[in-house]
Amino acid sequence: MYAPILSPLAWDLGHIANFEELWLVETVGRQDPLRGDLGRLYNAIENPRTTRGKLPILRGDELRVYLKEVRERALEVLEHVDLDSTEDPLLAGGFVYEMLIAHEHQHNETMLQLIQLVEDYEPGQIEQPPPADSEGPEMVLVEGGGTEIGAREGEFAYDNERPRHALELEPFWIDRTPVTNRAYAEFVADTRAEPPMYWEAERKAEWFRAAMGRREPLDPDQPVVHISWHEADAFARWAGKRLPSEEEWEVAAAGADRERANLDQLAFGCAGAGAYADAPSECGAVQMLGDIWEWTSSDFEAYPGFQVFPYHEYSEAFFGDAHKVLRGGSWATRRNVIRTSFRNWDLPERRQLFAGLRCAKDA
Predict the structure, then answer these.
(1) H-assigned helices in 192-314
(2) Residue range 253-281: average pLDDT?
(3) Residue 3: partners with Cβ closer than 8 Å, 6 or more residues away
(4) Number of Cα atoms under 13 Å in the Cβ half of residue 148
């Protein structure tokens, strides 16, 4: 299965193994690669998604053997290195180990974006999230003033989350829950905007969701998902609000608990808006983590004092006004990946992401 905006599953798997071999076997273990010719095929910068299906990548049994052999070599390296070494910055605090796990888990979510296009896909056992709690205000107030954002020292984070820095924010309101399918359907009906990806309409404006081989009535109380930044921005303006900046989003998310969130692909879909009401953020917003990535108004830019680590291609190559920042993770995000400081980014026209929104407005 292949789509121009997504990588073939075989490319993602080979890339995961090649990345592990590059950073753990070659860089840390100082061993030669199994196949030196593979690096050029799995370089994400040199091979955009539209070209990956045409590359002579490993497939089938050859790919499985490569995955197995790389993992065996990586485990051998881990047996003989000090993951808490203070002399090697890659090993300090187990950084390279954490990076490789996070990298693989991030590609798990990317692969699920493609799996949504596969017919007759059976996800297996599904854990039901808690029921939604509709009690509560539409928006909650976030007090302004001096604050800090960014990753704290002593925890694993990517370079784009650092350094933690101070800033001043004006007070603002933010939606207590993500925007729902019901609200977005009203927007579509009123403006004749294009419906989200995977929506199918029937008579009397009855909507169905068709993905992963299933066609089911659209749950009006779940967060809307698979919309672009342009669509999120248009909805917010239609609602008389705006998208929050990523700084506002992070401050509003303070205190959110990833252990009480719809993550890890367990529910295989969104919980109802208002679920996990027993674990709000400090300002009273719920579901700031999990369910859907939330588009913000912010361009993906470097923080003041940014320093590249450990390679330029992860963050720095994407800085600028071409990409918009998303925050919070989705139901498809692995729990160990997400944190309130985590910055995701993508092109504003992209809709295949598990992305929706919540709105903000000035206080």
Answers:
(1) 229-238, 246-252
(2) 96
(3) 114, 117, 352
(4) 9
Going from the C-alpha of 42 to that of each of 10, 35, 70, 159, 258, the distances in angstroms are 11, 12, 14, 22, 32
pTM (2 d.p.): 0.95
Local structure of 260: helix, strand or coil: coil
Per-residue model confidence (pLDDT) at position 221: 96
First-last CA distance in the chain = 48
Sort 321 into a burial class: Cβ within 10 Å, 0-12 / 13-18 / 19+: exposed
Which spans in 149-267 are helix H? 181-191, 229-238, 246-252
Sequential DSSP letters for 44-98: TTTS-HHHHTTS----HHHHHHHHHHHHHHHHHHHHTS-TT-SS-TTTGGGHHHH
**CA 282 to centroid of chain Cα atoms:** 22
CB 212 within 8 A of CB 121: yes
Q: Which residue has the tokens 């995955």?
A: 67
What's the pLDDT at 79? 92
What is the three-class DSSP state of 20? helix
Q: Which residues pair with 3 in a beta bridge?
A: 6
For residues 227 and 357, the answer to whether their CB atoms sit within 8 Å is: yes
Contact between 7 and 51 (Cβ < 8 Å): no
Distances (CA, A) of 328 to 239, 253, 288, 296, 338: 22, 8, 6, 11, 7
DSSP state of 168: E
The verdict on whether omega for the bond into residue 310 sits within 30 degrees of 0, i.e. cis, is: yes
157-169 b/e (C-beta count within 10 Å ≥ 16 → b) = bbbbbbeeeeeeb
In the predicted model, is pLDDT for residue 192 greater than 60? yes
